Amino acid sequence: MKSKTTTDLSPLHKTALLTAGLAQLGLFAAAWADLSGRRPEAVNGSKTAWRAGLFVNTLGPLAYLLTGRRGSTWTEADVPDQTGRVAVVTGANSGLGLETARVLAQRGATVVMACRSAQKAEKAAAAIRALKPRGQVVLMTLDLNDLESVQAFVAAFRAKYDRLDVLVNNAGIMVPPLGRTAQGFETQFGVNHLGHFALTAGLMPVLQRTPGARVVTVSSIAHRFGRMDFGDLNWRARRYVPMPAYGQSKLSNLLFTYELQRRLSAAGKDVLALAAHPGWASTGLQGGSGGSTLANRLFAQPQAMGALPSLYAATSPDAVGGAYYGPSGLLELGGNPERVSSSEQSHSGQDARRLWAASEELTGVDFEI
Ligand SMILES: NC(=O)c1ccc[n+]([C@@H]2O[C@H](COP(=O)([O-])OP(=O)(O)OC[C@H]3O[C@@H](n4cnc5c(N)ncnc54)[C@H](OP(=O)(O)O)[C@@H]3O)[C@@H](O)[C@H]2O)c1
């Protein structure tokens, strides 16, 4: 189905829209205060009619700003038939990964749920199976915190499957205290980027054997706060600050995706690399403290909505390699998916090549394309 998701507004248009919306709100508040302050006989017409008119006049631009600029209407019902296709979703036992696995299975795919906890994965798979999906869900252990587990997953997958249509690099952690992976990497950089780098490299031969295969990597709006410190990618020399470290790992997801697409294109391979982000979705990622639960309730979109950009990138015939997909609403926090833009730094070819080389060196993986 042709979607209406490929339009993107320039930063100038976005700023203009936001300014117009705020001006409208200001006008509304000023008029309301003025009308409320005057005697009824001094008002030209009924105060109530004025107020209703102003209220309605504000709703239009506000709804437009909040719900999406071009009204992307793409939903999970638009995911094409996945019968006969094989997908791997990392971190499929909760949040966006669970929703992504559910939809792909419901549309007929065989979905390998790549999770670190067998117990949690069993529970999640049982929930999907209870929906009687047309496809299958299969559990395989993957702990991105340990490159030996990544290699074991790759070997087990390649022994069992001879095709891989979609790899969704979804698993992630956000702002934990300083920690180290089994190989000594800072955990966010290690799990969110390096583990997925090694996983994608290991699965590349089978992806290349599958016509039209895709690699979707889940980034975040937080990539905009990230800076690449190539002298200290693993936070050994500088004071560890969780949010910038998360930002660096999510910026790495984008640098990796764009470089992967460049290399695939240069080698003439029939594999696409795409990136997605969910905006702000209510999942377990933010910790579950009282404050984050309340903020999620008030502002975040449901996790099923958050999975739509990943699903769009993974399955839409209109999605293109090297593109980034996210929600179409205000500040890309929520809404149906469309193509979005990413920071200037994420498009740096030089940084992407440096990160690729550093990732190969740190993981000991020779990423051949
Ligand atoms: N939710 C949002 O608003 C938001 C915004 C921007 C970006 N994102 C991105 O979206 C992705 C999914 O996050 P989510 O919101 O769905 O959070 P979530 O519900 O916490 O899910 C994260 C998943 O990653 C798995 N995981 C964590 N460490 C792992 C490891 N070492 N090996 C294998 N799997 C591991 C978790 O497994 P366990 O259950 O075993 O911990 C869980 O299944 C992440 O990449 C995140 O950065 C989310």
Automatic annotation (TrEMBL):
Keyword tags: Oxidoreductase
| Pfam families assigned | adh_short
Keyword Transmembrane present in the record's keywords: the answer is no
Family membership: Belongs to the short-chain dehydrogenases/reductases (SDR) family.
* Protein known as: Oxidoreductase
InterPro entries tied to this protein: NAD(P)-bd_dom_sf, SDR_fam
